Amino acid sequence: MPTIDDRTAPATGAVRGRAARAGVPTIPLPRDSARATVATSARSRAGATVPAAASTGVADLLRGPVRPARVLLSVPAAVYLEVRTDRGPDVVGVLTSDAARLPLACVLSRPSNGRALVSVPSGSPAQVGAGRIVVGDLVVSAAAWWDPRPRLPSARPALLPEGVRELRGALYGDPVMPSSFALAGLPAGPSGPLAALRGAVRRADLDAALRTAIRLVGLGPGLTPAGDDVLAGIVAGLVLLGHPDAERFGAGVHALATGRTTELSRSLLRHASAGRVSGEFAAVVRALVGDGALAPALRTLLATGSTSGRALALGLATAIDFSERGARAR
């Protein structure tokens, strides 16, 4: 490594490193330009590296080269970063242990403490890559990995009938599929998008559902609008249940989301199209195939966020309805 003496001496071999050879202490300098010096100083000001369990859904981002990012939001339980990639913007999150376990996140071992996870405003610069996330004074490393796609017994798993009835009963108050349903924050009534979606289900018409999706994308407040959460639940449910048109439907929804919703929500729709879901959603799906108790898993999912958990559950129930009716039609 070059030293101050190396940098300031003439470029002749006879005089380079005289201080070092004379036994005078020298200060190592980076080989690159002053930009590298600034970067090194910034890293030294950051806190100690914090280990986290990272979703394999963001393995490419974390293991890839260091990329610039910007803060979308920092709250007590999470910080979300938008990362620019060759395929467009992507999102990665750092979450505390008591946050919903999203498929694009690195999860810390500690719960939130009531203060913002990182004290930086939206738009602040960050870095993602080489196994780390650096934002403000927080440095997170991927110390372990978890798979956000639930392990199911087959590509087209059979669901427990009593579990499906319990899911429908919790959502609709009736174990039989209703003619319509409502969700806070979304238009209700016979002309609303949810009613149109139920009509598509009754006809087992996934193309009609995709046409209805344009009315749901971005509908509702927040970083993950309720309309998007419903669609994410449908997409992920169709994929995990092995519906033959799941890939086409998921690609169509993701394409509709471009420019119509938040980057966080768009990224979650992309993960849903690969069957990657939150830990809470995955627990319900596993329970529906007999792996775990459904009642506590369903309570946890429904309690997620103000509308997100219920919207995701509605989407899952809709995917089940599509799969059942499609199977009867075939």
TrEMBL record:
Comp. bias (Low complexity): 9-26
Positions of region (Disordered): 1-29
Protein name: DUF2877 domain-containing protein
Organism: Goekera deserti
